[in-house]
Design a protein that fits this description.
The complex is a heterodimer. Chain A is of the alpha/beta class. Chain A contains seven helices and ten strands. In chain A, helix 5 runs parallel beside helix 6. Chain B starts with 6 loop residues before the first helix and ends in a 9-residue tail after the last helix. Classes of the chains: A alpha/beta, B alpha+beta.
Amino acid sequence: MENNVGMITPSGGATTLAPAQDQSLQPPNPDLAVQIQHLDYFFGSGDLRKQALFDINLALPRGQIVIMTGPSGSGKTTLVSLIGALRTVRQGSLRVLGQELVGLGERDLVTVRRNIGFIFQGHNLFESLTARQNVEMSVELTGQFNTKRAQAEAMLGKLGLADRVGYKPNALSGGQKQRVAIARALVNHPQLVLADEPTAALDKQSGRDVVTLLQTLAREEGCTVLMVTHDNRILDVADRIINLVDGRLASDTSPDGYLQANAAVTC
Amino acid sequence: MWKRTPLALLNLIHDRRKFLTSVGGVAFAVLLMFLFSGFKNALYDSQLQLLERLNGEIIMINRLKTNMFVPRAFARRRLYQVRSFEGVEAAYPLYINDANWRNPETQQTRPVRVLAFNLADPILRIPEVSHYLADLQLPETALIDTNSRPEVGPTIAGIESELSERRLKIIGTFTMGTDFASGNGNLIMSDQNFLRYFADRGPEEDPRSFATADLGLIQVTPGFPVDRLVETLQAALPNDVLVLPRDGPEGFVIRERRYWEENTNIGFVFTLLTSMSFFVGIILVYQILYTDVADHWAEYATLKAMGYSNLFLLGVVLQEALILSILGFIPGFAVGGLLYTVTGNVTGLLFQMTWGRILNLLGLTFVMCLVSGAIAVRKVQATDPAEVFGG
């Protein structure tokens, strides 16, 4: 049986494991886009219950570009999907853009997601819609139907696709499709962008271009970017690199520090 | 609403070939429903063609004549009794008998139904009959139904052949149609000619005379309540006859239809076939919608991640279902209408496309697509946006 002595989380949720740890929570900090404290996450239930994340503590200041690396199965994707309000969190504290996600129901999570830009490994564009229409689908969430066309075209223009707005995904190259996906994620000017291996399906040059564009726009908009990647060639765009191993934060450094540490290991 | 990107429509028509196949599938299911329900209605409607042309508000029959198939006559003097009642404008007898007609081309004999009446009486609401009243007074003459089955042979004026092994000349035509009781076709002749053919047909057949009639038609004085007169007549007359209004829920026409509904498998068989087409349609549309959702699950999941609710995605799938049902109904209806005409000509049955039936099937098509949509939506709702991460 689990230990019943554990403390009650702010949401009034389940009891926690590891009662010996220091579970005191910092007060909410408005300068942080993401504030994670003592976050545990489990998959499955009963005998199959498996812990994926162990006591994660992480603070992402607004405007920072953060790259998260780590081996497969280390929990990167799980952590990103938790920050993206795509899964229900029960233990610890997870604040995204000032909103506590622990204990929120599905309907509230949907509202939180509207303030986050998502970029996936696949572009996930509707083949039946043109580039502009795909981006407009995002604008329609804000109800700005009258200006959606202008907004979509402006954002596509910033990504160098001004002459491709009427093309369907089949007529675009891989890099162009991923840029449309970025336009879709950024068109509503989210304060937080979550990207999952955005360059995995692209060749070196397109990947580089896409990431550089993402970096430029993020600086312009002042938004926080959290990017999961295995791609060592794009680490230089980051302000900070986080390494996750076996569900625990293993390191948290600047790009230079990360490279040196890694060089020491490999040499 | 209209300012939204029409995602449902664009998703449907994106792949032209798949879209046409889908619409064709729905149209086929609609066509099958039209055809099977059409057969059911045609078999019923055909039974009533003669009944609806009877020119009298009240019908008198032998109590044992539960349907038009039963050859029971009643005493004609009952009609004379009826004439004395207040509200009765006129009362006429109609004589009906089956007889063998020789096809003048193949020389084969086929049973047909002979309708006979006093030519002075306006018995049937068939406009063509009035043109031939003078010629029909000649002996051994008759009119033939142009909607008779092909076995009867050519149905044109001038044909000479045999009825009950006695010469008969066709002097004109009328248009009605066959039913279960009419054999292969209908003939109309005068009551005088009726006696020539049926008064003495040898020892094996019952002789017919003017003493008995098969149907009595009673015309009601304009403004006189029909229902009250029916009650009065039925109460005053002996129980050997049954007096019924022609129309209305308890009327003669409905009674005939009800008889065939309750005593044959027509309704069961064709309703079963119609509902099978309905379920085939559900499965078909479900396949189409499910494939769309399954093929685009990453895109739909992305929409969910972006902040679209389940309700929105449900709306997209239901819109696709609705578009399919409307676009599939139109060709299904068009081809169905064509087949009604063709099948009507081949079988001699009365295929009627009424507004009520069209709307009924349109409604069924909507339900068909919405049910499949509702099943397919479960797939969308089960789509977990967290799964798009990490691909």
